[in-house]
Amino acid sequence: MALEERLSVCTFDCPDTCSLSVGVDDGHIVKVRGSNAVPYTAGVICNKVARYTGDFVHGPQRLLYPLRRTGPKGSGEFARISWDAALDEIFERVGAVIDRWGPQAVMPLNYAGPHGLLAGDSMSLRFFHRLGATQLYRRALCGGVRSEAWAGTYGTAPGCPPEFAEHAKLNVVWGNNATATNLHLVRGIRRAKRAGGRLVVVDPLRTKIADQADLHLQLLPGTDVVLAWSLAAELERSGSLDDAFIAAHILGAEEFMALAREWPVARAAAVCGLEESQILTFAGWLAEAEPLVLSPGNGLERGRNGGSGIRAAIALPALLGKLGKGNGIVLAAGNAFPKTLARLQRPDLLPAGTRTLNINDIGRHLAEDDIDPPLRALFIYNHNPIVVHPDQNRMRRGLARDDVFTVGIELTMTESMTHCDLVLPAATHFEYSELYASYGHHWLQRAEPVIPPLGESLPNTEIFRRLAARFGFTDPCFKADDAELMDDAVDGADSRLGGIRPSELPTQRALQMGGPDGRPLSMFDNIFPATPSGKIELRSEALAERWGAAALLPSWREPEAAYPLRLISPASDKRISSTLGDLKASRNAPPLLMHPDDVASRGLTQDNQVRVWNERGEVVLRLAVTDAVRPGVVASEKGAWLMTSPTGQTISALVSADLKADLAEGACFNDTSVEVSRLRSEESRHHSLARQRQVAQTRPECMRHGVANRGDGRSAARLSDPEAGPIHGCVDQLDGHLGHFAKAQYRVAFPVARANAVGVEPHSLLERPAGPVDDAAFELVDGTIRVDHKTGIRRTPHANEADTLIDLDFGNDSGVRGHIFVTGEGDATAAPGADRQTCLPTADPRDMLDDRPRPRVGQYR
């Protein structure tokens, strides 16, 4: 079949929401590139989407059928069942929970996997509202602090479009790892710099965008509010504030400035860890530049002072009178769209008095049963809570409870899904129609499916439509199809839609959400603050009412650190939070970045395996020595899966879920204190084995085909010599990482003289990076094992003086198939305890690196 180009939209949790052109061949996505449907994204997309979409949609990890758990929670042992059986079991078991505990013992645990208006929450919330389930305040996990800070200051009005950055004389990127998470903003900033504009970056980490800055203020995490106050005070001292604008349009300016005057440059520099000259230079550039564009990110919200930091930062353009006429703040783009969420989600179906829980507290509620009624049934969708929640170990304990019935809806067998009783296969965003209102630009988009759903997977809307029917919900709203849901999601009467129904918007071009005058939305040009006073509110009664009296004005809480280092967790350029974390590029743990001074004081060196720990957990990471972080601060990217870690923990395990930001009770990921120490050799060995057990829990082939893990040898793969027959009898669900597992049931051992190469075909089974690895899949005495990227072959670059015992251990795992081979400079004899004697052919290891026939010991069938 000829390649067809079909239009789509990227739904990942990213502000850019790029328009896509998808190449489809015989039902398979074979190419993804940008389209020009959105002029802002202009045919350019990130490497993640361009490179990994095919694997994301069609890879062996994709879930295709409903599954029922057959082993312990977390084991990943499932059997395929029918949709009818799954829906019946959900109805019966959730019904039993409601009969005993009431409907509030049931709760959705979801977040922001796909960002379409339908898949995000439409039919799903109708279902949970009608059920009377506990409601979830999701935004506290990420984005809520920033949203509340903006709403308290500017109300429900949107900030300026990100296109303004291209024409700014000064761009300020504050707490925004824009190169990894905001690609098209960076492109606009680069064009502005080429035209003579300046760039200031405020970030504790020297990110790629910081490397390009004219001024990088590498402040201590959580001190953003102090820096913004000091800037305001210096701007006042220099006579740069716009008194007329302040008098006409700002509420609470004097109270705000009273706080700011307490932070002269010298005092602020000491607290922030900056040079006084940096603050003075920044203040001078703010005063001089017009247009000025400020682009805050999520980084500065992720601490105890997060709300105050954002409020103080976004006050600066207002105090300067630099809003409108090309000036602006790139925030709150979601407010540009005429969304009608009450019509879409139907909160009127919810019984009065139904409780709402903070998403950051769910791990505690599950683990400790500290609420009444307790949570006894969960639906996890659009979310990977074990990886992304703070206090990871507490969340794992909660999800491991056998008395909590858990339903998962997912694309792939995440580590959260392994804790579910039932797993339902979800369709990807390429497989259903959707409507997209970006949170990073002002363009409304619609997409149609480019391929049909794979296997028996279904869109979220259809899954909850079927659940509603099984629960006997006969209200007409539960029969609405996806086109009707689109029409419920956006106000079709809004003049900007030009009389076109939302469900009929063209897919080949996006619709810009402009102002009444047809120009882009811009504060004080064609829109104004939508606060209770109609002014910019630096003193917010609304925030005080929602979050307590302390939220009336920005405030400062000094850090309380039990350990000497502050851990921050920037975004990855390989994942979107944890999405794509099971693909090849993300299967190795990100390194820990540490300043040379901190490295030296601990006697560490580059590439050491180090323990990063506090009272909540322990993570083992490779050390990267760099001045990209300042002394006292360490960094490691967020979103890595547990399978990357020998301790079965990632950096989320170190973050407190009880420490909350000053607004929205937000998570404090960048307010985490830790210590770092060298990993002792015996610990390294212990963690090596643990790492392999962790890897063994991923079962892509088993999950794809819905095959239950068997312990009796039935329907199992068979290890055999093509000439002599079976070497070792049945090997149940052979694992792709042929490692030394503590509970391995099957073993073939060969003593090999001067072994020089071991490996597996196909190479996709061995995807570790080149370099020494402690937890090698093959045990070699005094041998260093490396991986050749092109072939996946593990080789010993030097021979051993004595015979080497090579243990090939097979865990009872994921059903992959391939060939095992071992070569040596001489004959091999049977190892004591081996099941049969096998002679290994002699071969030059260089033969392993080309396409010639290779000697093989055994074969998976």
Notes on the structure:
It is a single chain. The chain contains 24 helices and 36 strands. Strand 18 and strand 19 (443-447) form a beta hairpin. The chain has 861 residues and is of the alpha/beta class. Helices cover 25% and strands 19% of the residues. It has a 7-stranded antiparallel β-sheet with strand order 29-28-36-35-31-33-32, with no helix packed on it. It has a 6-stranded mixed β-sheet with strand order 5-4-17-16-15-6. A 6-stranded mixed beta barrel has the order 22-26-23-25-24-27. It starts with a strand and ends with a strand. The longest helix has 19 residues, at 83-101.
What labels describe this entry?
861 residues; alpha/beta; six-stranded mixed beta sheet; 36 strands; 25% helix; globular
Physical arrangement of strands within the biggest beta sheet: 29-28-36-35-31-33-32
Structural class: alpha/beta
The DSSP helix count reads 24
Poorly predicted runs: 695-861
Largest sheet: 7 strands, antiparallel
Say how many strands there are: 36
Average of the residue pLDDT scores? 83
Estimate percent helicity. 25-40%
**What's the Cα radius of gyration?**
28 Å
Shape: globular
How many angstroms separate the termini?
31 Å
